Amino acid sequence: MTVPAIRIEDSSLRLGGRVIWSDLSLSVARGEFLTVIGPNGAGKTSLLKVILGLIPATGRIEVLGDRARRGNRRIGYVPQLKGLEQDLPIRGRDLVGLGIEGTRWGFRLRPSAVADQVEQALAEVHAQSFADVPVGELSGGEQQRLRIAQALIGEPELLLCDEALLSIDLHHQREICDVIARWRERTGGTVVFVTHDVNPVLATTDRILAVVGGQWAEGTPDDVLKTETMTRLYGSQVDVLRVHGRVIVVAESFEPIGDHHEHAHEPAPGGMAGHHAHGADGGGHHEHRQE
Amino acid sequence: MNLLGYEFVQNAILAGLVVAIVSGLVGRFVVLRNMSFAVHGIAEVGFTGTAGAILFGIDPVLGLLAGALLASIGIGTLGVRLRDRDVAIGAILAFGLGLGVLFLTLYTSYATEAFTILFGTITGVSRQDVVLLVVLAIGTVGALAMINRPLTFASVDPEVAEARGVPVRFVSILFLVILAIAVAEAIQVVGVLLVLTLLITPAASAQKLTVLPGLGTIVSVGIALICTMCGIILSLLTLYPTSFLVATLSFVIYIASRIAGPRLVRRRALERPT
Fold it and tell me: Does a structural domain hold residue A277?
């Protein structure tokens, strides 16, 4: 029997006196693509931090067969896009190189070996053409591809993405998803993908974990992304619609998790529904960002 | 007349060499981490430390080091988050200067001493001071070499660095200690008020001239060396103050880099066609 990539048993997490989750048990198999959805402040980022060993949670937390610990080189991490400073004196290839070099003390012993790995990682995300440009001048999609290369360069077995597609246009979202899919195919790696918007990764998702206000549900996309499950999870009427292969979650008193603000301007059919339902409510919105 | 025959000239040049190398290296990270104000704050409290040392009859250099280190530890402790940092520096700087005023008032014959600390006394550096400068320089450069890559990661992308296991807090505080020693060293050449001219300007110019990390470090150290050496030699020949000459040279180089930089650095428009 192979060891699962992630095993969480009877875990509880309290942060600042608030219960983020309790009695959470979750097992992610090797090679699986787990998508984690839920509103802001529901604990999606906290889950990644627990897996990364940055915050302690009770219960049994095992990652790739070991207890969760800080600085595990077998884990790659891609954060949500935040623009890098315009005049940062760092090239794309330097940013990628930090993926292996950034955690090493002392002098660089074999520069050429690192350079080769960087070159390979750049090729994998098709970033060679802008690898020598200062990163601050690159577009969000380009910066995010470099971050993926940075996460993949150390040959991780588990890739954690935290809202990695946020504020990136649809075209580049697809490119990034393709890069991750290719990497998974090549290495059999595991992905935990935290997102507001399930649609870009719907096709590659094996399983979904929905976290809402301390409650959670998990299962195949078809099991979780349906009206009954979502209504039970949120404790109020939630409708899940499927339009042209996209999932739209319509609710009255909380953020939609199918589509989100950044997409409101796109002509995606029904994409507006979630946004409008959310935007129109005004009251009854009790989510606070605590991550 | 052979200037190099005088011991005070030899000391000045040796001290200048050491301080320029340290400043050029440490300055790279000061610019990368946007820490100009911290440099200024540490220097001001270093002044207070010196004033206190003179008042209590201790070696002024030890007072300077103690003041700078205390300030950097204070900044590291109170200014953990980026948004708190400037405020914490301001508070520490103001309190430090207040103490400095007290020491100045208590020790009435202190006015000329204060002037030399504020504006630099490179020609007053003793052989013993040079030895201390070299020892401290080896320590700071060694420590910086050890944390070079994690510190770069933590400076460029703290969130990811943390996630990948870089002890971001530890490297940040260690860098503040390195910075405190570098500031104390630079004060010996250009004085408290002009420390930024060695710890910011050369590295900032280098950053405008190249994005290649290794070359940037060489250029930064090179500019610091040119400014310091030319400043000291011109000062000996013309009797203008060293700190004025160093500050002027580095400012001229900075302006030149701002103008030449965009032409030298390969920008996106040139990169695209490939």
Answer: no
Q: Which of B152, B207, B274 sits opposite A102 (nearest CB)?
A: B152
Q: Which CATH number do you get for residue A145?
A: 3.40.50.300
Q: What's the domain range around A31? A: 6-223
B160 contacts chain A (CB < 8 A): yes
Q: Find residue A28's DSSP bridge partners.
A: A6
Number of domains observed in the structure of chain A? 1
The answer to whether residues A21 and A3 touch, using CB atoms and an 8 Å cutoff, is no
pLDDT at B1: 57
Distances (CA, A) of A10 to A7, A23, A57, B5, B208: 10, 4, 10, 78, 54
pLDDT at B57: 85
d(CA B174, CA B181): 11
Tell me: the pLDDT tens digits for B161-219? 988 889 998 999 999 999 999 999 998 888 888 889 999 999 999 998 988 888 999 99
Closest by Cα among B17, B19, B18 to B199 = B19
* pLDDT of B54 higher than 70: yes
Whether A55 has its CB under 8 Å from any CB of chain B: the answer is no
| Tens-digit pLDDT profile for residues B18-43 | 999 999 999 999 999 989 999 999 99
Asked if B160's CB is within 8 angstroms of A79's CB, the reply is yes
Could you tell me which CATH class the domain B3-268 is placed in?
A: mainly alpha
Give the pTM.
Answer: 0.85
Q: Is A115 on the interface with B (CB under 8 A)?
A: no
Q: Token pair 């003041």 is at which residue?
A: B67
Which tens digits make up the pLDDT trace of A207-256? 999 988 778 888 998 888 888 888 888 888 888 888 887 888 887 665 55
Q: Which residues of A touch B271 (CB under 8 A)?
A: 129-130, 132-133
Cβ-defined contact of B266 to A87 (cutoff 8 Å):
no
Q: For chain B, what percent of residues have pLDDT higher than 90?
A: 52
The answer to the question of residue A238 being in a domain is: no
Q: What are the tokens at B11? A: 């000391």
